[in-house]
Every structure is written in structure tokens, then in C-alpha cells.
Specification:
Dna Ligase, domain 1; about 230 residues; single chain; D-amino Acid Aminotransferase, Chain A, domain 1; 2 domains; 7-stranded antiparallel beta sheet; alpha+beta; 12 strands
Length: about 230
């Protein structure tokens, strides 16, 4: 089983209309500073970013941020560089997403049940077999929200249902995906963002041809659709 590059994983998810963070591997403080420039702003305003030390095995990175300003970005990069160089890892820059509710969605392939999807927080988890239809996504979201007793809005519940259906479609339609972890997946009242993805393969994936242009490129860049 192979764990694919993080940017490839984000790219695949985006092709299934799953909202993911804008991210890029960087090799210098100048790369990180350039990444912080808002892409759609005529006055080149900077946005807060995070820097993450990504290990060669693709583990979930610890983020340093939010970082605003050249000095803060340069200092964070220089602090991360020695450990990254020693491990053979990479430094990943990603847009900083405001604090919200962090959840996790995991997919696994069970020998008896087939593909299953788990939605979890730090205190509770619910699981369902894939594929998940509209009624299944609704039941899963209602069970999850009902356990937490936070008075989540109808809009937020529906957003969670749509997300579950898109993730289910991704897992069901990609036979080469053995398992995956989307965490942290940050939820706000009207939006969500996947901040990190670990995708493990047991075979080829349908999106592979579209990924080859930048796959495993140390200077690779991932720009999701929509605003960040």
C-alpha cells in the first residue's frame, strides 16, 4: 500500500468538489512570503499563512501559525528547516483558516463489510458503509450533531450532509483508494475546509493522469477552486 503525496491528495479531493486548503511546498523564506500574497488582490495584500513540517511518511504535520509579515514567516521557516533537512521531509505552506470546529472523516476498507466511512470528533464517532445516499448522509449528520447537543443550525447540518455524500462518492468511485484520513477538517457555520489529507492506495486511481504534471514535485503548488 502506498501513501500518495499530500498535494496529489488535495487535488483528487478537489476534483470531487470537496473544499480543500490552498497549499504549496516551499524551499525558501522568499517562497513562503510569495505564497502569502493574496492571488486576487490588485494591491498584493498578504494573507496569514501556516508553515508545516511534513515528514517523508506523509504524517499529519504540526502547523506553525498564523504567520503575518515577512519577519514572522522567515523566522518560522528557519526554525523548521533543520529538522526537515535531517528527516528528508518538506516544508508545506498553506493558507491559514480561522479556528472553528475540527472534525475527522476517515475511510477504510474492511475485509467483510467493504468500504466504510467514519465521521468523528474528539469525543464521538459514527460509521456507515459506502456508498452513502441522501438519506444515509442525513442520518449520519443528525446522529453526529445530536450527540454533541450544540444547537447546530439546519444550514450547517445540510452542509455536512453534502460533504459526506461527496466524500462517499470519492471513496466509492476510486477503487484504488484503500483508506484515507481527512483531518483536521475545519467546520464553520457556512463553510468547511480540509486542511490535511492522507490518502493510501492499493492500486491506480482514475485521476492519476491529471496529477502527473506536478506529482511529487518539491515545488508543487495546489490552488483549489473558489476563494481562500
Amino acid at each position: 500500500m502506498m501513501t500518495i503525496d499530500k498535494l496529489d491528495g488535495l487535488n483528487i479531493l478537489d476534483r470531487y468538489d470537496i473544499r480543500v486548503v490552498r497549499a504549496k511546498y516551499i524551499d525558501s523564506p522568499e517562497d513562503a512570503i510569495a505564497f502569502a500574497v493574496r492571488r486576487t488582490a490588485q494591491d498584493e495584500r498578504a494573507i496569514p499563512i501556516e508553515l508545516c513540517a511534513v515528514s517523508p511518511d506523509g504524517g499529519v504535520p504540526k502547523a506553525e501559525g498564523p504567520l503575518s509579515g515577512h519577519d514572522a514567516i522567515r523566522a518560522a521557516f528557519l526554525a523548521l528547516r533543520p529538522a526537515v533537512d535531517a528527516s528528508g521531509g518538506r516544508i508545506l505552506a498553506r493558507a491559514w483558516i480561522e479556528p472553528g470546529t475540527d472534525i475527522r472523516i476517515e475511510g477504510r476498507t474492511d475485509a467483510a463489510l467493504g468500504k466504510c466511512l467514519t465521521l468523528s470528533s474528539r469525543v464521538h464517532s459514527v460509521e456507515r458503509m459506502v456508498p452513502i445516499d441522501t438519506q444515509g448522509a442525513q442520518a449520519l449528520a443528525e446522529h453526529f450533531q445530536g450527540y454533541h447537543h450544540r444547537g447546530d443550525s439546519e444550514k450547517r447540518r445540510r452542509m455536512l450532509e453534502h460533504l459526506l455524500m461527496r466524500v462517499s462518492q470519492f471513496f466509492n468511485d476510486e477503487p484504488g483508494v484503500e483508506s484515507f484520513t481527512l483531518s483536521p477538517l475545519r467546520v464553520h457555520e457556512n463553510s468547511y475546509t480540509v486542511l490535511d489529507a492522507i490518502v493510501r492506495l492499493s492500486g491506480p486511481i482514475h485521476s492519476r493522469k491529471r496529477l502527473e504534471a506536478h506529482a511529487h514535485d518539491r515545488k508543487g503548488h495546489y490552488q483549489p477552486a473558489g476563494r481562500q
